[in-house]
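Case study 2.
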Amino acid sequence: MATPRVWINGKYFDKHEAKISVYDHGLLYGDGVFEGIRIYSGKIFRCKEHVDRLYDSARSIGLDIPISRADMTDALLDTVKTNSKVEGYIRLVVTRGVGTLGLDPRKCEPNIIIICDDISLYPPELYDNGLEIITAATIRNHPAATNPQVKSLNYLNNILAKLEAIRAGCLEAIMLNHKGEIAECTGDNIFVVKNGKIRTTPPDSGILEGVTRAVVMELSAAAGMPVVEATMTRHDIFVADELFLSGTAAELIPVVKCDGRPIGTGRPGPVFRSLLERFRAYVRT
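Prediction:
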């Protein structure tokens, strides 16, 4: 397998030669934004939506990305071509850039990094058998602190919840918001099926509005199963007929047990299976 070529500020470097300064505020403080983007059949999936969200995140934290959206898109396309990637994953990162050891970002010059490689978030058998998850004690960031709509480089909040899941023998965890309501998982959005109706948590529950989440909602509506955004609690999870997650890396994956309680029959359900089939067909059209 060829060594990935990483795009940094307009130049390509082999994976092991791709470096930025230890004085970059992205490393020192988690100051920056990123996107994870899928490649299907040689095409960047929902490229515009990902680029738009990147620039929205950057604007929200006062980070000026030094190239236009069109130039960013061209860089993404060229990186995929340079790496001859047909199926894979892009990690697009914009850091605040090199500065002093203080917090002041005003003298920083942003770095743009595009990595094109493979990703496998969950073992393949879990897409057939389903995940077991827990509810984390670590809550989602308060929206008045770091807004969850910003996809920032500081993922410590999510990582702490992920560690809780791992210690419990699971691979994923539900995160509640500051009001005790369901927000999302550490890296995925949540969908609940009850009595044939599909619900997902709304933006004001403290979620990142996932690009894959939006695709699931479109596919569901086209199949005559519109998704309703609704505030939910753990009770809604425990009594669900089906539960599944969506995300760029995860795609769609079923959950069959939460906090020791079986979800529905304890097996992936028909709504999930139908949407997974539709999703897999859609991404390659």
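The mean pLDDT is 97.
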